[in-house]
Every structure is written in structure tokens, then in C-alpha cells.
Amino acid sequence: MNPLVSIIMGSTSDLPVMEKAAKFFEEMEIPFEMNALSAHRTPDAVEAFAKDAQGRGVKVIIAGAGMAAALPGVIAASTTLPVIGVPVKGSTLDGVDAVLSILQMPPGIPVATVAINGSLNAAILAMQMLALSDGSLADKLAAYKLGLRDKIEKANAELSEIHYKFKTN
Predict the structure, then answer these.
(1) Its pTM surpasses 0.90
(2) 128-150: b or e for each residue (b if 16 or more CB lie within 10 Å)?
(3) Per-residue model confidence as pLDDT tens digits over 50-72
(4) What pLDDT, in 10s, does the model give residues 97-141?
(5) Interatomic CA distance for residues 54 and 88, integer angstroms
């Protein structure tokens, strides 16, 4: 089974953030791979990975990186596959540095960017891309979205049971 999505992180210290994407793909039964590659420490491996990904069946790449956050852009420069960048919160600027690094790509090298530590949204976005040509994934995605709605409706109903002296609803 070939992976449809590749999850790449600049360091295994990013795993607590990036594993949310992996858990979503597990739940949705979407084949994926996960690797740690550094744009600065292993640039040749990053370029080889990006150039080889499509040939291995990968359709979307999710790249998480903190600080200078070059990884998503370096990957996007070496492939025509869509790349979704996940800025990872660092220790100094709380991930703002990573957001700016990922957002400010030059013309012709786009990287879709989600919120700081937003790997779950990156996974959902990747699934939306895949669902454009896969009806079964489109159905799973629709069911997932309905589940989100149902969860909020249930929470709102539970709020109606909480009583306060001056609460009017």
C-alpha cells in the first residue's frame, strides 16, 4: 500500500504536534508515511524525498517546522505536489517566526499554511484535496463534518441544562 500523504517534520521533537495529523489519517483510514528531515541539516535528503514523493504515490505533503521553518518551502521548491505547512511553536517567538517563514513564499512556490501547531487542520485540508477525486473519502469527510456539527449541538443542549439565577435561556 503506497502512502497518499506524507507527513514530514523538521525534528522528532515536532512529533507531539504532527501526530494529530497521523491520528486523523488513522481514523479516516488514509495511508500515510511519516519522516523527520531537516531542511538545514539534511538538505540533500529533503530534496531527494520531495523529488521522489510523487513517484511513490504521494498526493499531498504536510510539512511541519519551527523557527526558520524552511522545510515546507524547500519541499515545495522540489515538487509539483501540494504542500501544506504547519508552523510549529518554538521556544522563542511562540511560532510566529515559523508562520512568517512559511507564509512568505516567493511567487511560483506556494505553500498552504495552517495555524501554529495546526496539524489536524492540515490533515483535514489534505483529505479535502484527496476527496476531490475519491468518492469514498468524500463520504468520510462529509460524515466527519456532520459529526462536528452534532458535537456542538449536543454541547449547546447540555448548556441549556445549566441553571443560574440570572440566566435567561
Answers:
(1) yes
(2) ebbbeebeebeebbeeeeeeeee
(3) 999 999 999 999 999 999 999 99
(4) 999 999 999 999 999 999 999 999 999 999 999 999 999 999 999
(5) 25
CATH number among 3.40.50.2300, 2.60.40.10, 3.40.50.1970, 3.90.79.10, domain 5-134: 3.40.50.1970
User: What would the 3-class secondary structure string for 32-50 be?
Assistant: EEEEECCCCCCHHHHHHHH
First to last CA, the chain: 53
- 101: cell is 517563514
d(CA 20, CA 62): 12
Give how far Cα 18 sits from Cα of 12, 25, 145, Å: 9, 11, 21
Residues 6+ apart with CB under 8 A from 126: 5, 21, 60, 62, 84
Would you list the DSSP string of 107-157? TT---EE--TT-HHHHHHHHHHHHHTT-HHHHHHHHHHHHHHHHHHHHHHH
Pairwise CA distance, residues 136 & 143, whole Å: 11
The full set of domain ranges for the chain reads 5-134
The maximal CA–CA distance of the chain, rounded, in angstroms, is 66
